[in-house]
Structures are given as C-alpha cells and as structure tokens.
Write a structure and sequence with these properties.
Layout (H helix, E strand, L loop, with lengths): L2 H18 L33 H6 L3 E2 L2 E3 L3 E3 L5 E2 L12 H13 L4 E7 L6 H21 L7 E7 L9 H7 L1 E7 L2
Parallel strand pairs: 5-6
Antiparallel strand pairs: 1-2, 2-3, 3-7, 4-7, 5-7
C-alpha cells in the first residue's frame, strides 16, 4: 500500500468512528412510566373527588382534587410557575404563586419545597436540562428574596423528560414551568 492509500484508510476509519458516536435522541418514557410521573406510579393513587378517599384515608394518605399526596410529598397543592419560551426570568404575573408558596411554608414550618424545573420538548436534552435548572434556581432565588431560608428549598431539573413531544403551543406553554412540590421529610 502506498502512502496515499494509508492516509485515505486513516481518514475513512476516523470518519466511521466519529459517526458511530452520533446517535439519535433517546425515546422519552411516558410520564406514567416514570417514578415521579404525572399521577403515575409514584403513589398508586388516582386523584378524584372526595368520594374516592376510600383506602387512602385508612393509610393516612390524603386526596383532594388535583392533589397527589404520599408519605414523602404533596404534588399539585401549590401552583406551578410558568415561563416564556427559552426564558428563566420569573414573570411578574407568576410571582404571586411563589408568594403563596412562602405563605404555605410559614404556616407549615415542618415542610420544605422541591422546585422542579421543566421545559418543552424543543432543544437538545442537555440544553433543556440546563434551562430547567436555571428556571428552578430562579424560583429558589426569588423565594429567598422573600425571606425563605435556603435550607427549606431544593431544586432539580427535569428538562424535557416529561414534555409532550410535538405538542401544540398551549401544551408546550404548560411544559415550560417550575413545579412546586411540598417535601414532608
């Protein structure tokens, strides 16, 4: 083999190795398949009206319309904070929701809050994880300016993991949020 053929082989092998590392974005699990999915396997409870309390009252787990409570968390009690597309600044109209969260903590000092930053499906997984993190931390910072102790707040980014792919504008707007979850432990 001559020198030019060796260089061509090296270039081809390098290209094959480089392209072999490029993969498609992984398929997202359905929210009901995830541990902390929207009403999925996290508590085993289907939220309904007061008539559906049944076994939940016997186990000490409470249910209210739109609220899911288990031994560790309360989801849906405090309203989510929504964001504009590709933004992490808290809109003036959304600040009252965080003020309500602060008031809830004042009335229930034994609890803490988990701020889950979320994004719509557009963008790379890495970018959306970062944006979700910025959104959760913006909510945390705002709560701290209201006087909430940092030890009462945790943040996590869910990115676009539970977002509706190829959703309508309204569905995507609902995915751009920070969920405010009450931590009981």
């Amino acid at each position: 083999m001559n020198h030019l053929s060796k260089k061509l082989c090296i270039v081809l092998v390098s290209a094959m190795v480089a392209f072999a590392g490029c993969t498609k974005k992984p398929k997202r699990p359905a929210p009901s398949d995830t541990v902390l999915g929207q009403g999925g396997a996290q508590s085993g409870l289907n939220v309904g009206g007061p008539e559906s309390l049944g076994d939940a009252s016997a186990t000490g787990l409470a249910q209210r319309e739109g609220v899911i409570e288990d031994e560790n968390t309360i989801r849906g009690l405090l309203q989510p904070v929504y964001f504009d597309y590709d933004k992490s600044a808290i809109k003036e109209g959304e600040r009252a929701k965080l003020q309500d969260a602060k008031a809830y903590l004042e009335k229930n000092p034994q609890y803490r809050l988990l701020l889950e930053g979320r994004c719509d499906w557009r963008g790379t997984a890495e970018y959306n994880m970062g944006l979700g993190d910025r959104r959760a931390n913006a909510a945390k910072k705002y709560l701290q300016t209201l006087g909430v102790a940092p030890a009462k707040l945790e943040t996590i980014s869910k990115g676009d993991l539970e977002a509706k792919e190829n959703g309508s504008d309204d569905e995507m707007a609902k995915d751009r949020r920070v969920d405010v979850v009450v931590l009981k432990k």
